[in-house]
Amino acid sequence: MFKSWPGALIYYLKCSPFFTHPTLSKDPDDANADSSEPPKRTPGGWKCMPYIIGNETFERMATYGITANFTVYLLKRFHIEAASAASMANIFAGTTNFAPLLGAFIADAYCGRFRTLVYGSISSLLGMVVLTLTAAVPQLRPPSCTAGDHKSSHCDGPSSSQLGVLILSLVLLASGAGGVRPCSLPFGVDQFNRQSAPGRRSLASFFNWYYCTSTAGVVVGMTAVVFIQDSISWAVGFAIPAVCMLFSITALFLGTKLYIYVPPEGSVFSGVVQVFVAAYRKRGFQLPAAEDAAQQEAVLYNPPARSGRHMKLPLTLQFRFLNKAAIKCEGDQVSDAGDRMNPWRICTVQMVEEVKLLIRIIPIWASGILCFVALSQQWTFSVIQSFSMDRHLGPHFQIPAASVGIISLLALALFIPVYDRLLVPVLRRATGQETGLSLLQRQGVGLFISALSMVVAGAVEGRRRRKGVAAAAGMSAVLWLSPQLVLMGVAEAFNAVGQVEFYNQQFPEHLQTVAGSLFYCSLAGAGYLSSTLIAIVQKATVRNGRGGWLAGDMNGGHLDYFYYVIAGLGAANFVYFLVCAHFYRYKGWRPRPRAADGVGTVELDEEAFVREKEGSG
């Protein structure tokens, strides 16, 4: 029937349930719902997860199987100089971490999560195929070079056309990352009913297992696949990730009849700008008294929620000046259907509160960047430490220095099931919260452990230096580096997973894909901040011709001092986070009188707000 697999894929896309079936379950309270519409689906929950988690696991295995050894590939097969290869790899890594922000905007505004996820997956597959061809086809790479020529830098570099094909593969890979990374997790979140207690508990468990299985995929990609690339063949080593990516796409399509498909809702940022513009235009107006609910209802434009998928947010007093954007005045025209005739003059209370959510989240997001600065050391200086230590496991096998950081990933992958199945039930009984720890508490624990890991790393490095070169060579890298790496893995299990869950639960519903991209922006920001910190420390500590703390000869430097600097910054960041957490108000929070005289207030978080809504309904 079809002459090529792209034709079959396009036909399948057009005939898939995403294009032919209804999307969300109908809200029974929606007065505008059309009774003639066919019945819509309810969230499938865990029934959909094998396909979505399988898609993410294979994608991670494929992506990290390609990128983990990419710098070595540039050096050995394309004969690019070390500095240029490192620069190209860093630019590619930064681009792939910032690309999800653009992909998130496209998904939320125009294409929807599923289609963006599919297009991104296909782009990644094509990028991997092109990169595999550069390794398999001799005409697409420079001629082979002897070891002697490598050392003397006499190897021929790539031609313009060969470099163009390589860059094409990187562009396709970065475009794919921009579509896959921000959409995969929010698409999984769409499959759960967040309006019920079982649905919220299942969602919290989903975040844990999603991160656990994707980390397992990373471990396989950075060990088995890298080993094949180094020891067997670059072409085979790149072809395996391409096959894994094909499995990833297949797993995603297998669940199309079960998925909920949330449609795009137009421009996602124009409403944010409209709130600020409308508030500025009405800066001279007076707001009603906070305790006068009737007056607020009369003065502020607060129509009912348009969709059952969106949580109706109550009016809050934090950032109160923005409430002026919802003041109804002469000249503000609203149609009979409730649409604003001039959206730059008047906004709904819902829009104002959604902007406040974003303002509250930004300081919390900033605290996560420094956490990843500490965690990123497992792939840089921990690797350098291992070079001067004994990396043997038994008499015949030596761990590659670049694989030492796998200890952290293993700790992460093993700790998450323990946390989800053993610690959460214990913490739930102790705290009374369904997830054991609140979203902010989980992040705070991770921040504290990340700073502690740097203290341990500094102590281990100090001991290594005091032992001297000969004695340090006999120190087991696995034994001595494991404590700091295990702590890094546990810190990531608390903070990174906590961040992902926090963004997906606290962002406005129509910005869920942007929420997914924010995590990758943290990684990109941490990479740039880490590079800046290294440059500052090195410049400040190089004196009288000495190499400074981060000298090429580790025995002549003071890497332990650098670790302690990061630990100190982490401690300051932890205090900053506690201050931000103290003033943070969860989505759905609202003040209430505690007693009949109205003195004092209590805070109502999102879960309590939903429970109250269900009870009153």
Topology:
Elements: H1 5-15, H2 17-20, H3 49-67, H4 70-76, H5 82-111, H6 113-136, H7 147-152, H8 160-189, H9 197-231, H10 234-254, H11 270-281, H12 293-299, H13 349-375, H14 381-387, E1 392-393, E2 397-398, H15 406-431, H16 439-472, H17 477-506, H18 512-541, H19 559-583, E3 592-593, E4 601-602, H20 606-616
Antiparallel strand pairs: 1-2, 3-4
Helix pairs in contact: 3-8, 3-9, 3-10, 4-5, 5-6, 5-8, 5-18, 6-8, 6-10, 8-18, 9-10, 9-15, 9-17, 13-16, 13-17, 13-18, 13-19, 15-17, 16-17, 16-19, 17-18
Subcellular location: Membrane
Membrane topology: Multi-pass membrane protein
Protein name: Nitrate transporter 1.7
Describe the protein in words.
The protein is an all-alpha fold and 617 residues long. It is 64% helix and 1% strand. The chain contains 20 helices and four strands. The protein has a two-stranded antiparallel sheet. Helix 6 packs antiparallel against helix 10 (234-254). It is globular, with a radius of gyration of 27 Å.
